[in-house]
Predict the structure of 2-dehydro-3-deoxy-phosphogluconate aldolase.
Amino acid sequence: MTDKSIDQLMRLAPVIPVIVIDRVEDAVPMAEALVAGGLTVLEVTLRTPAALDAITAMKSVKGAIVGAGTVLNPAMLGAAIDAGSEFIVSPGLTDNLGKAAVASGIPFLPGIANAGDIMRGLDLGLERFKFFPAATSGGIPALKALAGPFGQARFCPTGGISAANAPEWLALGPVLCVGGSWVVPSGPLDPARIEALAKEAAALRP
């Protein structure tokens, strides 16, 4: 488990790749390409049977900080930690998952979409959140409005973020990074393409 806080992880690079991986054998070359491109914080979503083994494999890549995304409940949290996850990302926040994640001590980035979600997180001692799904939850105007009453909160917008609109999100003061799947396109693995996309993403911070 990393000794960095979720705040430190969010500040390491402007983009956290959101990875959906189908083949464990793709894990290491994919992680190597992302790290070579300057993106070191890697979120592997628990959406496929290969995800947990991919997390374990990616941990062998020097410089990679590998976490699990799409964590929905305490059981998935435990499985992700057992696989070697160094941080946890969830699409939403429930009391059960939030309490389990806080108790585990692992860096945790829960999803929020409204003021009630943020208040639930603050009650648990959390101040760093994933704004999800960003584009369909009101976009930049909504996040600006939410950030007003919660000055201590910082965000990682995810969902509908692209290379084209990421700079606009990253220009917002409360935004530390964005989550994006565009740096790991679907289809056959192309490490050279991923490295090039990662380099472009790593240079996005305004």
Q: What stands out?
A: The longest strand covers residues 15-19. The chain has nine helices and nine strands. The chain has one domain: 6-202. The longest helix spans residues 191-202.
